[in-house]
Structures are given as structure tokens and as C-alpha cells.
Amino acid sequence: MVDLVRTDAERACREALLASADRHRDPMERHCVRVFRIAERMGADLPDRPDREVLLCAAFVHDAGLFPAAATGDVYVVDGRRLGERVLAPFDWEPERLRLCLDAIELHHAPRALWRLGAEVELIRRADLVDVSGGLVRFGLDRPWLRSLFAEVPRDGLYGMLAREIGRMARERPATLPRIVRPRRG
Question: Exposed/middle/buried for 91, CB within 10 Å: 0-12, 13-18, 19+?
């Protein structure tokens, strides 16, 4: 797998993911890499290029709230947003860039398109759905390109890891499950 990290902020977000994911590091990191690569590919067709650093940071942190190390008992996407905010604080991003990244993390399960919040937010939402669906949902992406990505960055362990973590979340914080698609910002 090619190392995508270029900046200190990207490195910090990757490290936060790996620290949070603990024993699920490999399948989760691969999922995040695929989400980034899919978002980047979809963004290449847009008139204005999305912010690569925002996309990669959001991709690395978007599911970190699933894991006990990042969980506070709130909705996991809100926990992920809070983790992203803590990790990115030292980098003094402009408020709008930070909002884009944090919204992309928190709203990646939104049921409707979020272009109005910024391309990065919608691209992460779509990319996560493409990867979790195994390419059944493609948003116009070429099937051979997706097959090539899935071969390069294998999907092994993704569903088992998600089932275990969502099952744990259902036991430990069941009231938060419906709010995954419509979180209340804290």
C-alpha cells in the first residue's frame, strides 16, 4: 500500500486512527485509505479541486469514534468529530477548512447529499458508502477502477471488524445508534 501521508496534520490523523483502532488497525486503515482514494477520484471530476489534506484527514478519522479509545459514550460520529478537532488543533487551520474536515467526519452517514456544506463533506460521505457497499453503490465510478483499488488495498476484515464494533456499540450505547445518520452536534 502506498503511503499517502504528506503533511504533519495527515500524519497526526493517521496516528490518531491507529491509536484508536488498536487491534483493528489493519482493516480500518485500509478502509480509510480506500475512502480517501475513492473521494480523491470522484473529486478529480469537479471544477474546483477538493482540499486533499482535508480529505485525507477526514478519511483517517471518520470512523475512529467507533473504538473505545476515542469513545465518550456519545454518537460515534460525534466522538470522531471531537477527536478530529483535538488532533487538528495544533495545526492552526483556518476555521472554514477545519469545519469542512469535521463536518466530513461527523456527517459521513447523512442520508442525503451535502454538497452545500462543501465538496469534501459530500465526497467523504459518498466514498464511505462506495467502500462499505463493496462497489454496489458507485456514484458513476468505473467498475474496473474500483476492482483495481480493492485488489491494491484489500477489503479483508472490514465487515467482521464493523460487525464487532457496531455490536459493541449497540450494547454499550444503544440510544446513539439512530443518531448515527442524524447526529446532534455537541
Answer: middle
- Asked if residue 186 is part of any domain, the answer here is no
User: For residues 117-146, b (16+ Cβ closer than 10 Å) or e, as one string?
Assistant: bbbbbbbbbbbbbbbbeebeebeebeeeeb
pLDDT digits (tens, 9 = 90+) for 96-136: 999 999 999 999 999 999 999 999 999 999 999 999 999 99
Q: What grid cell was written down for 139?
A: 456514484
CA angle 149, 79, 135 (to 5 degrees): 20
Check: CB of residue 39 under 8 Å from CB of residue 127.
Answer: yes
Contact 44, 142 (CB under 8 A): no
Can you say whether the dihedral through the CA atoms of 128, 134, 140, 142 is positive or negative?
A: positive
- Establish if 32 belongs to a structural domain: yes
- Is 130 among the domain residues? yes
- DSSP symbol at 48: S
Average pLDDT of 9-31?
93
Q: Which domain holds residue 58?
A: 8-180
Report the mean per-residue pLDDT for the chain: 94
Domain with residue 45: its CATH number is 1.10.3210.10
Total domain count, the chain:
1
Q: How confident is the model at residue 185 (pLDDT cuts 50, 70, 90)?
A: low
Q: Which residue has the higher pLDDT, 130 or 168?
A: 130
